[in-house]
Structure formats: C-alpha cells, structure tokens
Amino acid sequence: MAQPERDEDPGELPYRAHNIPKLGFENYWYPILTSGELKKKPKGVRLLGQDIVLYRDGGKLYALEDRCPHRGVKLSLGECAYKGTGTISCPYHGWTFDGATGKLVAAIMDGPEAPITRKVTIRHYPIRDFAGMIWLWPGSMEPSRLEDDVPEWIGDQGKFFSMPMYTDYKCNWRWLVDNWGNDQHAQYVHRKSPELFFQPMLPFNLTIEPKPLPNGKGMAFKRIGGVTSAEFPGLGTFPNKEWWRFMKPRGRGNVRGFENSKAHQVYGIPNQSEVWLPGLVLVGRLHGEYALVQWAVPIDENTTRCFNINNFRRLGLLTALFDRAHYYLWRGWAHDRIFSDQDKVLLEAVVPGPERLSKSDIGVIAWRKFMGGNARRPPSLQEAPRDVA
Amino acid sequence: MAQPERDEDPGELPYRAHNIPKLGFENYWYPILTSGELKKKPKGVRLLGQDIVLYRDGGKLYALEDRCPHRGVKLSLGECAYKGTGTISCPYHGWTFDGATGKLVAAIMDGPEAPITRKVTIRHYPIRDFAGMIWLWPGSMEPSRLEDDVPEWIGDQGKFFSMPMYTDYKCNWRWLVDNWGNDQHAQYVHRKSPELFFQPMLPFNLTIEPKPLPNGKGMAFKRIGGVTSAEFPGLGTFPNKEWWRFMKPRGRGNVRGFENSKAHQVYGIPNQSEVWLPGLVLVGRLHGEYALVQWAVPIDENTTRCFNINNFRRLGLLTALFDRAHYYLWRGWAHDRIFSDQDKVLLEAVVPGPERLSKSDIGVIAWRKFMGGNARRPPSLQEAPRDVA
Amino acid sequence: MAQPERDEDPGELPYRAHNIPKLGFENYWYPILTSGELKKKPKGVRLLGQDIVLYRDGGKLYALEDRCPHRGVKLSLGECAYKGTGTISCPYHGWTFDGATGKLVAAIMDGPEAPITRKVTIRHYPIRDFAGMIWLWPGSMEPSRLEDDVPEWIGDQGKFFSMPMYTDYKCNWRWLVDNWGNDQHAQYVHRKSPELFFQPMLPFNLTIEPKPLPNGKGMAFKRIGGVTSAEFPGLGTFPNKEWWRFMKPRGRGNVRGFENSKAHQVYGIPNQSEVWLPGLVLVGRLHGEYALVQWAVPIDENTTRCFNINNFRRLGLLTALFDRAHYYLWRGWAHDRIFSDQDKVLLEAVVPGPERLSKSDIGVIAWRKFMGGNARRPPSLQEAPRDVA
Q1: Alpha helices in chain A (DSSP H)
Q2: Which among A12, A252, A269, C216 has the fewest CB atoms less than 10 Å away?
Q3: Cis peptide leading into residue B278 (ω within 30°)
Q4: Each residue of C297-327: pLDDT tens digit?
Q5: Distance of alpha carbon A314 from alpha carbon A321, whole angstroms
Q6: Which residues of chain A are modeled with pLDDT < 50?
Q7: Which residue has the higher pLDDT, A231 or B201?
C-alpha cells in the first residue's frame, strides 16, 4: 500500500499524465556505442541510469553490471585476463566473472578452491553488435529479437546499410522525442540550416493527423494543408522573403506528395516519416533510397545520447561508394552536425515547467499518449497510464 | 495558517530578525547592465533570482520573463524578427510576444488565425535606459519614478553625469551592504590600497551616530571622535608607523570636517556619505564635485552585481573632459578595480554563520534595522519586522 | 533520548556495524602538511571536516578555527601583524586572536579599550612541527604525547629520520584503510608496478591471522601458507607466466621468513607490518633499516590525504646520504608515485554500496572491528560498537 513519492521535478509536469518515465522505457534495445568504439579493452557506459561494463572476448560481446560486489570497484577498470573464456577480472583482487551468466568463476587472491566462487552472481545484460552499433537491452523482460524490433532500414542489413554517429545532449531524453512528434519546429528552427538553405520553404500551419502503425510499434502523421508563407497582421510576412530562396516552394515534401513518390510507388514505403517506441524517428526521402533514424537514448536524467543512423538502400557497389562519399562530404556535416546542433542548442536551453500546447502540438500530444499507452512493460506494470489529460 | 518553513541556512542568522530577504527587496529599480551592453541581439539576465530577457526594438526597450510558456525554451535565444513592432520571437516555433504587454501576438507555425494568439500572456517588467545603465523593476507593485528613487547624483543627469561599471561577486548581496554601514572596515582593509597609499591615515575607533534621511530612503552616519593611531598593549601600534605616510593625518575626512567643506557650504550637500534602500552607498568628496554610488544588485542567492557608479558635477566641457580622463587613467583602476577587489576577496571568503557584533558595528545594526523596517513592500507585507534583536 | 538520524549513504553500510566514523577518529594526532609548506604566511587547511588556520610566529606554531566570529571572514586570509606576539589578525576589521588560547586580544578598529576584547574566544588546536611534518590534534580530549602515539620509526627521530610526502585522494579515508588490512590486493594490483616488476611473485591465498599489538594501538597479521602461482580450472594460470619474472619466487617476504630476518633478529622488530589507529600502516624491510608508514588523513567526507612517510634508520652520514639519494632517484618515484597511484585509481573508482567479503578479507574485518572497538574516544562515547556483524 506504499504510495510512491510524487516526483516534484517541474520537468515531470508534461509527462506524468502519460506515464513516460524520466529514465526511459526499459524493455527495448538501445544503441549505445558505434561498433568501432569497443576495442580490446573493456569500456564502461551508462544507459537508463545504469552503469554497465562492455567487453569483447573470443569474438563475442558481454555486458555486466559495472561494479564488483566484493569491494565495489568498477569492473570497467579491469581486464579480460583469461582470453577466450569470456570473463572479466576486477582490477582490485581479481574477482573474475563470466560475461554470459554474471557468475563469479574465480576469486584469484583466494585461490582456486575459494568457497565464494559460484556463490555470487551479478547482473548481465543482453548485448549485440549489429549494423555498426553496440546494442544493449536494459530491461528485466526477455529480450525481443533486435532485427524485428527496429525499422527495417536498420533491421535488414541485407537490403540496407547503416552509418551511425551520435552526440550527447545535456537534457532529458523526452525533450528530444517531443521534437520528433511533427511539431513543425523544423520549418522554423532549421529554415536557415545549410541543408535547407537553397531548398524551397517547407510548408507550415499543417493539420496533423496521427495514425498508429499496423505493427503497433509507433505512429505516422498525415500532413494536411499547410502554407509556405503567411502574412501576420501587425507583424509582417513569414518567412521574411529571404532573397536566397530562388527555388519555387515545391519539391521536398509536399507538391507532388508522398503518394506519388518513388519511395511509395516503387518501394512500397508506407509513410514518409514515422516515430517508434522507445523513442526514435524515421525520416525517408521521396526517392526511397535513404532514410535517417534519430534515436534518443537515455543516459541519465539529464543526458541523452542522440544517435543519427543514416541508412542507405543497397544498390550495388558504385552507389554504395557514392552514398558513403556523399555522407562524408556533405550530409554528415550538413545534417548530423549543423542541422542537429540547432536542436541541441534549444533543447539544452529548455527551462523545465508547465507547457501551453497549441495546434502544432497535436502530433506531440498523440505521440506522448501512444508511448505511454503502448510501451512494452512487464505484466505487473501493463496498466493503462494513470490519467490521460 | 500555513507556517512558512524556517530557512535553516546559517547565513540567515544575521538577517532573520530584520526581515531582510535573501534575494533582495523587490519593489525598487535596479541597474542590471551598462547601456552599451544591450545591443541589437536580445540578452538574458538574472535579477533577484528571476530570469529576464531584455531587448531593444524601434528605439524602445523591453523586458520579459525569459521562458516561452509553449515548450519552455529561453526567449533570450530568440530574435526580434519583426523590426519596429516591439516583439520577440521564440527560436523554437516562433511564438511571438509583445514586449510592452507580454501578450502572445502570433504563434508563427500555427498560422495567422491561430486560436491561441492573445490568450497567453507572460510577465513583462518595467525597464529604463538611464544614466548609462539599463534599469529593471523586478517587483509586483507599480513602479516608482526612477529619477526620484535614486540619489540626485544619478537622478538629475542635467546637473551630473554618470560613469558606471560593475563586477560580479560570488556571495550574497547582504554581505556587500553590511560592508557599507560605516563599519570602519575601510580604515583597515583599504589602508594599503593605491588610492589611500599616500593619504594620511583615516581615523578609526569612531563613534557612529546613525540618522535617518528626511526623505525616508536611507540613513547618514555622523562620525564622532576617532584616532589615527593607537597603542595596543602587548601588541604594538596601529597603524604600524608605515614610512610612506609622510603626510600628516589631516585632509581627507576629518580635520576641517565636512561642515566646513565646499560640498556642504557651497553646494549644500547634507552628508558626506549616505546609505539608501534597496542597498546602495553614496560617498561624496569634500569639494562636492564628485560622488560614488556603489549598488549591491542581487543576481541570485550567491551572486551579487556590484555596480560602481561614478558621478561628476557638470561644470563645462573642459572639466568633463578632465573628469573622464581622470577616471580612465586613475580612479577606474585605483578604486573600481583595486580598492573594490580588496572587499571582493574578503566578502567571497565569508563563512556563513552566527556573528559577534561590537562597537564598530553600530552603523551596521542601525542600517539593517532601517532596511528591514522601511523597505517598500506591498501592503500585505507591510508589517513590522518579526523581531528586532 | 533523541535518536541520531541514520545515515542513509550506501557507503556507510560496511562501517556502521563497527562504528567507524565517516570523518575519522578525532582524538589522535594527524600529519597535515610537510614542514616546509608552512612558511611566513598563515595557511588554511581542512582536517576531519574542520577548517583550521595554521601559522608560525616567533618560532612557535599556532592553529585556530579558520573563521573570525565577528563577521565570518576566514582568518587564513589575514596576517601576523604583530610579530612575536603569537597573534593573527582578521583581514576585515583587524580582530586579533592569541594563537595559544584562541582569545580575542584586540579589535583594532574599536581601539585599545574595546569592551569586546577578551570576551570572545575561538577554538585553538594542539599543533606540532615534528619529523618534517606539521601535526594537528582535531579532537576535544587532552592531546596525547605525539612521540608516544606514533610508531617509533617516526616518534624517535634520534634513531630514525623521516621523509614525508602526500597525495590527496578523492574518496573517503576508510577505503584507504581497508586497503591496508592485508587484503592481498597488493599481490594483484601492484604485481606489474616498477617496484615489484623484477621481483619474484608475492605469495597469495594466504591464511591471515590477526593479532592485536601488546601496546593496544593496532594489529599485526601473521601470514600462513600461500602460493606464488595457481591453476584456475577453465581459466588458466595466475600469474600468467610473465616472462620477466626470471627470479625464483623467493626473497621478499616469505621464503626465509621474517623470523629469520635481520630486522627481527638483530633489531628486534616484532612484525613485518602493522596497522595502527587512527588509520595507518607500517611496512618494514627484512634488513630492518627502512620502514614506510602510510597514513590516511581524513580531509572531508570525500577527500583523504594519503601521507607516505619514508623512515630510515640513522646509520651514519654516508648511509643517510645514500638513503636520501635512493629515495630521490628510485623509491620516491617507484613507490610513492607509481605504486601508490595504482591504488589511488581504484579507490577513487569505488562505487559505495554493500560488500561481499571473502577469505582474503579476514584481515580487513578484523581490522575494522579493532578500530571500532579500540579507538580512543571521550568517556561518553566509550561504549562498545553498536553491533559487530
């Protein structure tokens, strides 16, 4: 009958009604590093507030709680002293744990017959090296199959290939996810980014119709109407007749419409953009040969690892070479750095507190409700959200 | 009947009895920047713990609460997108506020007919650009007339001109104000400062008689007696017969006396120094043609902006040129940097806790009582201080 | 009958049962600086969480509470204005305190007859300059004689000479002391340090028999058995047949045994290593002409000054010169820097929380019990530890 203490953090106000946890949804796979970052030495990471040590040994990956239960030292300062056995040894007295089970298999300083051996177990985490990223499952439920749990652009590496990078934001993960609910911030924030500079203006004042995906994993947003320019009485025009927008307001996004695109007609892609649990957005191109996934990975309450996963359709070696060159020479800079950093500056400047939501937040509200109501949770927690305001 | 929680901060001990608030008295004008610091771009400041965005547009100044109520981003990251309208636009979705009223006049991404427009209002603050400083009124009462609320040396810019600068101290504002209650620290702390180096010793062991000013805004202190040297049994002499004090102990301050000075007799200045609410000190010269105002501006609990406002009597162009040269070449360095920084080092090294006050603190005690008892407060708070110890 | 609040810090778990205080045992002498660090100017230090100002005057040392009770400024910013009187003067208004008694002997700005003089007293601390170190007694009991309270290697500077240095660790002092309870971490942590690199492997899997010292000040540990190599099923050998260990596993520590050593037989040293209250370890050499004392000096909850005091037997000028050269050229680097820093890295990476102790912790447990049960305490606190788990 213990009443859980109400979290008085004003940053909880927008999320309490939807039961969206401060530290993220536990029972999902999350990318945590790029594959190349985990080399021979063990590495400590934090995910959903949990400290975890990762290591490779004998061609396999292991993830354990990053604290030796003996005297408390971080295992990530230790080493894989017995190559090929899948174990890691604590640097303090050599307590050695099996990465596959978390079992203590030796307490070196106590000798081979140490009675404590096999009596101590620490938490081990499901871990994968997939699509150029190290993935962890921080939850207590049986892990899903990673390939089925992420968009096909990542999950099917036979058809696609992925180029990931990440940036750490000093803010809570939910502020990134709000940003992805078709709140039309992009039309405002990014209109002067290099990526959109010579593009026609993106339409705004859209009517957003959220629709759940058939697979139950997220939502798409149908965009209806919208304008690329408007006169605000007493103020002036938006956008402000920027001289450099010599291209007509067409092309990207709206004029021909996604329904007429190659992406939809040739490749059968159902939506131009989708948001998925546990907190990612998938944005495609009309040509259907590229899609970006941005993933908000909760590190701790005030840190979020924003993964930008660039996914390309495999169309032969030459195209792949061109795609990689295009990424390194243009998109990696123009989007993953400049464009994304425009969001970073704003999200890190959010002052937690109450909100006044408006028409452009319809997608945000729908997305919050969806997440809170549909997130995978252990049976004991699978109740409806407490109150949907 | 709710009992306000007693603040257990040991730094409150000296101030609780006099009801002097940790964050300063709200219903006063405060200088916050020099005029030149507020340029074309909006600027965020903090005053009495409140975050405020300041901006200039169409020759006017505006000050608003520095948080967009939509999704919480700081407005100070935004821009005045519609020049001449007195508005500022949030960088996230373009919510645009009227600086004069705080009203939301457009939510750009929602289009011109957005129903939320004019339904949302944020707090706006009275603001002035005066005497080379930007001034804010952080209180909830109707603002007073700035010119009437400050010493004439600042308020009457026809007769005087002001040269302000400031330094931020990492301590509570009350520690600066205590420093100005004629506690005779100057005679000790500053005796080796360049400004007083070749001066005769200032008298100490004075008897201080506090007297309220007729205008009810502060106090003056009558200084009686005092010595410029004393023998302490078992220790030695103070000051320590410093060889460089070849000037006789006369001149500054005491020998002829302020009553016989030009300041008093020609210019009719009533007191050589005065302290005023909400926390400033005015120190004149015997010649009556210069006065320094030092103002403790509370930024937050542990930060105080110490404004040094140098004020000169207008006596023609040539004198003004000389005054400015004198300030830039000597006084700006000797006083506003070196002399003031001697206080800064000590005030930042105060360990909060109980005090043992003595004879030299008579002025400090009187000044605390005066502030607590006479500060302008909304009618609901105009009770007597809780307990005058 | 007030129940002291239970400290919920998870780092208290291992120490609560033994009543070992977070901030250290108060009624002991502690080294705080090397003698050369306290020069003409007063110096502020922190010890057991207490801020203390130290100064030299007229050939004597003084230690006072580092806060002027007048208006709270740190006395360590002041000066000894009256040379030879043993006083220190506050930099703010010249309150002058006698270092020997803590009495206020003058309030300079109030003049020689100030009524407050001699009515105010601040805490003074017993202080010594001994064996190249400044020592403080932070407790409320009458101080013991320093020479009797420390190992003879430090206490008898006629027979020995000491070379001290220290490093500050960012962790609680108890984690250092645990490290000294013969927990056999050295065999693991330091086996690749330059100091032990070409040495034969130290034996591990010892059986530790703790025995209290006859003087009641600490314990020694009898080491029984042990191996220098072992095969761990499924893992491999420890140590890992390191090629550079060409010396046979003999010599240091175990083969001839301490009982047959010159230290024991010629010099009558009873134990090769001892741990003493309030938290130090003494480690000798078989030749009996050198011993290291490492002392965990609690600065505050999360900072510990680890003193390494190198002690040499006085055997004539030539040997002393050789000892000093050996220290500067080899041991100061190999042990006090490299070897000790291997511990520092681990101790600063301890995550506070519950422990799982094992066979190698028998010494640690005994040592904790001894400390909690035998520490010098004022009579009112000389109860048995609350619960010995």
Answers
A1: 13-16, 146-149, 152-155, 173-178, 186-189, 194-197, 262-265, 317-326, 332-333, 340-347, 362-374
A2: C216
A3: yes
A4: 999 999 999 999 999 999 999 998 999 999 9
A5: 10
A6: 1-4, 249-251, 253-255, 384-389
A7: A231
A188: nearest Cα among B73, C244, C43: B73
A70:C357 CB<8 A: yes
pLDDT bracket for residue C246 (50, 70, 90): low
Query: By the CB < 8 Å criterion, does C224 face chain A?
Result: no
Q: Which among B82, B87, B110 is the nearest to A360, CB-wise? A: B110
What ipTM describes this predicted complex?
0.91
Bridge-partner residues for A106, per DSSP? A96
Query: Which residues of chain C are within 8 Å of residue A91 when distances are taken between CB atoms?
Result: 188-189, 346
pLDDT-based confidence at C244, cuts 50/70/90? low
Nearest to B161 by CA among B171, B152, B170, B172: B152
Measured between alpha carbons, how far is A357 from A367 in angstroms, rounded to an integer?
13
Does B139-381 match B34-129 at the fold level? no
Residue C315 has phi, psi (to 5 degrees) of -130, 35
Q: Which residues of B touch C70 (CB under 8 A)?
A: 355-358
Question: Is C51 in Cβ contact with B351 (below 8 Å)?
Answer: yes
Q: CATH top-level class for B139-381?
A: alpha beta
**CATH superfamily, region A147-378:** Naphthalene 1,2-dioxygenase Alpha Subunit; Chain A, domain 1 (3.90.380.10)
Dig out the tokens for A278 from the structure. Answer: 């546990």
- Whether the pLDDT of residue B33 is over 50: the answer is yes
Answer yes or no: are the C-beta atoms of B294 and B180 closer than 8 Å.
Answer: yes
CATH number of C155-381: 3.90.380.10
The sign of the torsion formed by the CA atoms of A213, A219, A220, A224 equals: positive
| Domain range B34-129, CATH architecture | 3-layer Sandwich (2.102)
Which subunits sit against C, judged by 3+ Cβ pairs under 8 A? Answer: A, B
- Please give the Cα distance from C15 to C4 (Å, whole number): 16
The domain locations on chain B are 34-129, 139-381
Nearest Cα to B294, choosing from B336, B325, B263, B342?
Answer: B336
**Chain C environment of A93 (Cβ under 8 Å):** 183-185, 188, 360
**Minimal Cα distance from A14: which residue of B?**
B71
CATH number of C29-129: 2.102.10.10
Q: Is B224 on the interface with C (CB under 8 A)?
A: no
pTM (whole model) above 0.90: yes
Contacts of C227 (CB under 8 A, 6+ apart): A111, C203, C204, C205
**Tens digit of pLDDT for each residue in A312-342?**
999 999 999 999 999 988 888 888 888 889 9
Q: Which residues of A touch B115 (CB under 8 A)?
A: 358-359
Spatial contact of B235 and C82, defined as CB atoms under 8 Å apart: yes
Which strands make up the sheet holding A50-57, listed edge to edge? A43-47, A50-57, A60-65
State how far the Cα of A323 lies from the Cα of A338, in Å rounded to an integer: 19
The SS3 of residue A121 is strand
The per-residue pLDDT for B259 is 87
pLDDT at A347: 96
> From CA C125, how far away is CA A353, in angstroms rounded?
50
Select from A27, A274, A297, A279 the least CA-distant residue to A177: A279
Cβ B204–C107 below 8 Å, yes or no? no
Rounded Cα gap, residues A131 and A164, in angstroms: 8
**pLDDT, tens digit (0-9, with 9 covering 90-100), for B50-86:** 999 999 999 999 999 999 999 999 999 999 999 999 9
Pick the range with the lowest mean pLDDT from A199-208, A306-315, B158-167, C229-238. A199-208
Taking CA B191 as the corner, what is the angle to CA B189 and CA B195, rounded to the nearest 5 degrees?
A: 110
